[in-house]
């Protein structure tokens, strides 16, 4: 990676994906191609795919599906954008075997198989953009850190071999802004939709708000309440628990950037 | 009033209004003609009406206008329903002079003037019905009391001679239900819309949640948060403060029952 050659910002998802494919961009995709949907990635063998599809269907808030392969083995995802090749168009991938991380790579062509099914799952970047556009402050954005995420005691609906509790992200707001946040996020069910809880963390099994299970802690001011949203880490946690013999995910922060405008996800 | 003759329940707004007009029904309208919009009433002389219209326009959450007279002096409100005569179709009215309550009557025909303008303002009954239909418990309904209402430190936008702070109603919910309540109420901007606050009462100037300024206290369970919604008492309070020389309002709980289905108020 020659950082001298690396542009700091791509406006077009297509240009960004081409640069990733050519090895010219290998960083986090956060902030790139603003206005376009970024997705969490899960790739599973056909043998596991049906169970996982049912799990996502049964748990749409933590596992909102934006797109799925049209057939096993096809690495192209026209539904996600022009010339999208899931083997090369993310900056970084994780390879898992029997629930254990075995490798982190920038290209999965050598791992591709005819029975693999790709799942693209919505990501909070889309609704964060809508909140910022409305003038709300997103604390993890203003503090320049990853959003704090927590394991909860909220059980997902089990499906086949997949089960587990919901993982949530947390953003603090004063109540008036929390009400507006609920309205805006309700318009975006395919990126987790309305929050699942606000206020007392212990009510959903979070014992210490200052020590997130993933991501970074953020400041909660005295007049603010923590607002908890279902998180795309949930399906990854369920996969790790089910331990499929083979699986590929994106590396944290290295998403598939699609050609779908965020505004297209709004149901209202 | 012959209570032997008084039916306990009217299904049709028209039949209810005719019974009120005939003197056969003089009770609170709560629970009558379910499914139809009930309205707060304010009648002001033309000289005051423009200021009041501007005040409502500037403060749509506490003062959502459902209908206004087509011209001063016209007591008929076709927009509200078949044969609606505002002089006779409410069970009870209050007459105010220079900000003081001078009389409570069941017919205002003798007080009618050619310069009077009628304002119908949305009422929480409509959104409460939508919440109950969704399976939420409304505490003031389940405890059989009036909703608790509080003066706040939230200033309305002044207009002409009208100004004052917002009055809010309060309903307790667990956070998950509060989120659903915010979604449902957002669909009904003409009956106060989304709440204005939840949680800490002192943040909006309410010092004691157990002693409402109007209505009755309700139980707040340990896992619940109070949710505060702009209330139709606000415009009445602003009128009392402005002290117009003449004014007519409904008596508390004795609303105009219109032919407008509650569902017609939903914007989504």
Fold blueprint:
The structure is a homodimer of 268-residue chains.
Chain A: H1 13-21, E1 36-45, H2 46-58, E2 65-68, E3 93-97, E4 100-105, E5 116-122, H3 125-133, H4 139-142, E6 149-155, E7 165-173, H5 175-186, E8 197-198, E9 225-230, H6 233-242, E10 247-250, E11 256-261
Antiparallel strand pairs in A: 1-5, 1-10, 1-11, 2-5, 3-4, 3-10, 6-7, 7-9, 8-9
Structural account:
Two copies of one chain form a homodimer. The first copy, chain A, starts with 12 loop residues before the first helix and ends in a 7-residue tail after the last strand. The first copy, chain A, is built from six helices and eleven strands. In chain A, strands 1, 2, 3, 4, 5, 10 and 11 form a seven-stranded antiparallel sheet that branches. In chain A, strands 6-7-9-8 form a four-stranded antiparallel sheet. Chain A is an alpha+beta fold. The N terminus of chain A is likely disordered.
Task: Please describe the structure with a list of short key phrases separated by commas or semicolons.
homodimer, 268 residues, alpha+beta, PSTPO5379-like, PSTPO5379-like fold, 4-stranded antiparallel beta sheet, 11 strands, 25% strand, globular, UPF0317 (chains A, B), Putative hydro-lyase M5M_11890 (chains A, B)
């Amino acid at each position: 990676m020659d950082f001298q050659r690396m542009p700091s910002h791509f406006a077009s998802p297509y240009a960004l994906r081409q640069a990733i494919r050519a090895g010219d961009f290998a960083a986090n995709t956060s902030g790139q191609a603003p206005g376009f949907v970024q997705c969490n990635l899960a790739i599973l063998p056909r043998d596991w795919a049906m169970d996982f599809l049912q799990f996502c269907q049964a748990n749409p808030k933590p596992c909102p599906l934006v797109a799925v392969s049209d057939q096993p083995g096809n690495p192209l995802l026209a539904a996600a954008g022009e010339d999208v090749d899931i083997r090369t168009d993310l900056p970084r991938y994780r390879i898992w075997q029997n629930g254990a991380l075995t490798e982190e790579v920038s290209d999965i062509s050598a791992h591709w198989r005819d029975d693999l099914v790709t799942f693209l799952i919505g990501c909070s970047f889309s609704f964060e953009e809508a909140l910022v556009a409305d003038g709300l402050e997103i604390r993890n954005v203003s503090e320049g850190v990853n959003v704090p995420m927590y394991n909860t005691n909220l059980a997902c609906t089990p499906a086949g071999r997949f089960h587990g509790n919901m993982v949530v992200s947390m953003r603090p707001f004063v109540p008036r802004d929390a009400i507006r946040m609920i309205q805006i996020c309700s318009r975006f069910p395919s990126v987790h939709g309305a929050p699942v809880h606000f206020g007392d963390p212990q009510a959903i099994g979070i014992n210490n708000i200052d020590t997130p299970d993933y991501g970074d802690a953020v400041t909660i001011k005295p007049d603010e309440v923590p607002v908890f949203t279902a998180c795309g880490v949930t399906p990854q946690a369920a996969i790790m628990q089910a331990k499929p013999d083979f699986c590929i995910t994106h590396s944290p922060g290295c998403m598939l950037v699609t050609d779908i405008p965020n505004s297209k996800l709004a149901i209202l």
